[in-house]
Amino acid sequence: MMKGRAKAAFWIAMSTSLVAWAMVARAAAPRRAPGARAGSAAVQASSPRMPRYRFENFTTANGLPNNHVFAVLVDGDRIWAGTEDGLALYENGAWKVYNTQDGLAHRAVLSLALDKNTGDVWAGTMGGLSRISGGRIETFTQLNSGLSNDVVYGISVEGDNVWVATAAGGCRLNTRTGEWTLYNERDTPMAEIWTYTVSATSTKVYYGVWGSGVLEYDQKTGRWDKYDDPDGENEMVLFKDQGLIHEIVTSVSYVDNILWAATYFGDSRYDGRYWHNFLVKDSGLPSNFTNYIKGVDANRGWFCTDKGLAYYDGVNWAVYRPSLKDGKPEMTVRDAAGHVTPVAVSTAPAHNYVLGIDFQGDDIWVATAKGLSHGIYQR
Amino acid sequence: MKDRMQGRARATLIAPVAAILSFAAVLALAHQCARPARAATLSGQDDFVDYDSPLELLLSPDGARLYVLCQQSEEVRVLDASTFAVIASIAVGRVPRGIALSSSGDRLYVTNSWDDTLSVIDTRKLAVIATWPVGFEPSGVVAEGAGMRVYVANRISNDIAVLDAATGTDLKRLLAGRGASYLALSLDGSRIYATHIFPNPPPLRTGMENRTPPESEITVIDTARAVVVNRILLHAIAGVFHVALSPDGRLGVVAELHPKNLVPLAHLEHGGAFADTLTLFGADVGPPVEIPLDELERYASQPFGVAIAPDKSRIYVTSGGSEIVTVIDVPRMLRFVRARPHAQPVSFATDLAASANYVVTRIPVGRNPRGLLLTPDGRRLFVANRLDDTISVIDTRANRVASTIKLAGPTQISALRRGEQTFYTARYSFQGQIGCSSCHIDSTFDGLEWDLEPDGFGRDIVDNRLIEDIKGTEPYKWNGSNPNIPTECGPRTEMYFWRSQTYDDRTLTDLTLYIRSLPSRPNRWRLRGGELTPAQARGLAIFTRTVDKFSKPIPEGNRCSFCHSGPKGTSQKSFDVGTRKPTDNSGLLDTPQLSNIALTAPYLHDGSARTLEEIWTIYNPSDKHGRTNDLTKDELNDLIEYLRTR
Fold first, then answer.
1. Which of residues A17 and B253 earns the better pLDDT score?
2. Residues of A with Cβ-Cβ distance to B135 under 8 angstroms
3. CB of B263 within 8 A of CB of B277?
4. What are phi and psi of A62, to 5 degrees?
């Protein structure tokens, strides 16, 4: 029941393109993260060295078509931002915007993926899937192609295949043959078809499903497996570190044979044998409500939550955000013992409500509900 | 290849021994079956004629050898570039289309468009040393200057394969224009320019896609990264052929067709069917400029090959339909362009007075001239005359044909060959403006919708259909009004297309023979042995089903397999499938055959469906075009997977 209500509420929000707004109000309430302990000057002096950034923020004031940035993608020196009003490309210090009049499937761009081999960019939108190749946009919809549904939440490129997570199941486009293969409740253990995220490699493909956990596809055998929350639909965590932390999966990232999975009720890391769960109460996570997760490698990952951006180096945590109390730039570091230390900073991501991240060398680019942020690494 | 070699063996082993002759005839029959554009003639006297059909030309880096790609004999003919004596004939794959040399000249690459392979020839041994798989219907090919990669344009795959030059590994596919076909490498090796022969699908769904100008592109590839970095848009262009770059890299030129398919095809006297044009691009001209080759009463129908003189003084263009080479004075052309400043791409395609400003002359050559080649000193221009097995050698200072090289093909002209010549020439139309192949490019189609006069202006907009394998699919025309090919291609064509009555009985008979002989190219989605993938098998079950998913019987006339029956997928009858538009005179439409249906987008009689999916997701709301609205999305995908095997 709980799950159903949450899904319905979120669907309404998405369908009216107000998802960011809906959560911003919640994020704005100044609340101290449970489990965090206040630091002191003495602790700060011995706190772990965590990456620091100077954030430069982009909004409509300096070229973004819309401040609601659902996804960000780094393509060498070029930055792509999926916004609520078009796909924006930052290149040579200027923004160029692609929208429906250019052939983009829909103005609201929810997800982005780069084909590193060809340089093509794939954009998932509220109205279909678009491929941007050398400036030309080719659009696939449920009417003109084999795409299962026009609401495209997630994309991942693997070899010649483009894997897509839609509101009506997953699908795969073979770009060489043009063949579409659909994955839904008829041929996978998908209890719900609202696929929300996908991460594909040449060996494994993972789908995160809203209300149906994580699905794993073995590329070699063609078989599906399923990972669920061991305590079922209970919002309480009854079986810590014994499986996926919740069924409502918002983001997956598979890197170095490690699965990172985000939910609105905490996050998980799975190494193929053991699960580890991350909750606010026993980690440096600023919120259990996680929109997006991106593993750097087997041990390090970034967590995009409704209360800031968090980085985990395998032991320690850092959180970057405007203060929930007064909006001033804030960075905190939490060590393995749980000591939280404030770090003096003068800049922060554009907003607490973080929806995506990508890496540009040592720099990071962060999608938030109120702008795009460039985190310039400080040595 | 085996068949071809057998054919050649027959040609060389003729002896007065009846048994041997019989054996050779059997082999030749097998050979005939393996090739396109081959069929028994009406008289039976013209069987087994092995024409060469030279298509493209290359010169070895030292200038000593002339490589001639012979499409019909499926070989590379190697000639001494001075004496034109034959040095060797190297057999390649089926229906070769593109040829390129490595920068060192030690490798020759040939695309085999029906085998989906690339032949690699060692130019010292003059032998094929490897055959690499590529994409569907490989056409143009170039080897990048650094020798690391080979690029192949795949016409059906609509992409460009990037191959490792050492191993042939297919590294990646770059999205190209629809019908990707021709490639050119810039002189500095940094860029590859690619063209395509069918227009790109309209990006926006407006409901009027079939009445919007076609769009094409020149795809620009950065060879350092092997990625597409630009697409030069060609507005209102459908059918782009060879591209050439000047040695200084400042001027590029493509040969192309500018169809006038949005207005009724009724004004040939005003140049109302096509403009035959070039688009110029590069620093010399700024934003791209489209200039016409045509002049009143002097048309340059179906431009194909293009070359720029080493000193950039001249541009040479072959026109396959007009059977000429057009010579353009580049400085005068640039003066013409620069006298008309433009901040955006601009077109002078409809200005039939423009070409007088820059065309020096039009040199008649052989039948269906295609590829052309300038010697490094720019003094001689070789032109491959595909349909009379000759190469014209033009003295570029005198602008005349200095000599004609006859290849080794037969001297007699078969009825089939005459039919093909008729198909490709523009000489039968008013002022020589168009030919059958203007719309049926390379004997296929053009991906366009036309408004033909007989139905009334603005009435019965019709999609141009593929003409392969149409024997036994009559009647013709979307309304089924033409009972046979002579009716379709005879007086009706003369009256409404050519505006000229010039076919005699034999010409029409030969043309009919040629069209009826066109085979279907290999289906790329059908597995060897005719097996079906699981998705295709599920699709077949849907295609042939008699009850819907609610267990209700599907009326016979509402089953896919009823109207699309028989080996070619047509019952040869007309039906109303609910796609009639207010501008259509009737809702009754001839059932189109399904042969290679995956290739022929757009769909429906007026091309309103951009994809196979749209036939059912948009244009079948009442299940009149078969019972399909009970299908789930994955079932519809299965049906389409099956249709692609037809």
1. B253
2. 176
3. no
4. -130, 40
Phi-psi category of residue A235: left, alpha or beta, with phi > 0 → left and psi -120 to 50 → alpha: alpha
Question: Cα separation of B112 and B262, whole Å?
Answer: 35
pLDDT score of A19 more than 50? no
Q: What are phi and psi of A129, to 5 degrees?
A: -115, 130
**Is A148 within 8 Å of A168 (Cβ atoms)?**
yes
Pick from A324, A325, A263, A340: which is nearest to A44 by CA? A340
B295 vs B584: CA distance, rounded Å: 35
Q: Report the alpha-carbon distance of residue B456 to residue B506 in Å, rounded.
A: 31
Structure token pair of residue B524: 């790329």
Q: Which strands make up the sheet holding A136-140, listed edge to edge?
A: A109-114, A121-125, A128-133, A136-140
B412 exposure class (CB count in 10 Å sphere: 0-12, 13-18, 19+): exposed
Which residues in chain B have Cβ-Cβ distances shorter than 8 Å to A184? Answer: 634
Give the distance, in angstroms, between the CA of residue A341 and the centroid of all CA atoms in the same chain: 26
Eight-state DSSP code of residue B498: I
- Residues near B556 by beta carbon (within 8 Å), at least 6 away in sequence: B562
Q: What residue ranges define each of the domains in chain B, with the CATH number in brackets?
A: 421-517 (no CATH), 534-643 (1.10.760.10)
Prior bond of B475 cis (ω within 30°)? yes
Long-range contacts (CB closer than 8 Å, 24 or more residues apart) made by B638-641: B638/B535, B638/B536, B638/B538, B638/B539, B638/B542, B639/B539, B639/B542, B639/B543, B639/B560, B640/A146, B640/B539, B640/B612, B640/B613, B641/A179, B641/B525, B641/B533, B641/B535, B641/B536, B641/B538, B641/B539
CB-CB: which of A100, A135, A177 is closest to B230? Answer: A135
Nearest residue to B294 via CA among B306, B278, B309, B307: B278
What does the pLDDT read at residue B415? 94
- Cα separation, B56 vs B409, whole angstroms: 16
Contact (CB, 8 A) for B603 and B463: yes
Measured in angstroms, the CA of A220 and the nearest CA of chain B are apart by: 18
Q: Is the peptide bond before B602 cis (omega within 30 degrees of 0)?
A: yes
Sheet holding A86-91, edge to edge: A69-75, A78-83, A86-91, A94-98
SS3 of residue A234 by DSSP: coil
Task: Find residues 202-241 of chain A whose CB sits inside 8 Å of chain B.
Answer: none
Asked if A133 and B175 come within 8 Å (Cβ–Cβ), the reply is yes
pLDDT at site A46: 63
The one-character DSSP state at A335 is: -
Q: Which residues pair with B539 in a beta bridge?
A: none
Paired tokens of A168: 């009506």
pLDDT-flagged residues of chain B (< 70): 1-48
Chain B CA closest to residue A182: B634
Q: Which residues contact B342 (CB under 8 A, 6 or more apart)?
A: B286, B287, B289
B564 Cβ neighbours under 8 A, 6+ residues apart: B543, B570, B571, B591, B594
Question: Which residue has better confidence, A122 or B103?
Answer: A122
Phi and psi of A82, rounded to 5°?
Answer: -90, 115
Cα distances (Å, whole numbers) of residue B610 to B592, B607, B618: 16, 7, 10
The helix/strand/coil state of A158 is strand
Percent of chain A past pLDDT 90, that is, above it, reads 84
- Give yes or no for a contact between A45 and A339, defined as CB atoms under 8 angstroms apart: no
Distances A299 to A36, A257, A296, A302, A315 between C-alpha atoms, Å: 22, 11, 7, 11, 9
pLDDT at A30: 32
Contact between A118 and B172 using a beta-carbon 8 Å cutoff:
yes
Name the nearest CA neighbour of B246 among B282, B276, B293, B220. Answer: B282
Q: Answer whether B227 sits within 8 Å of A136, measured CB to CB.
A: no
DSSP state of B596: T
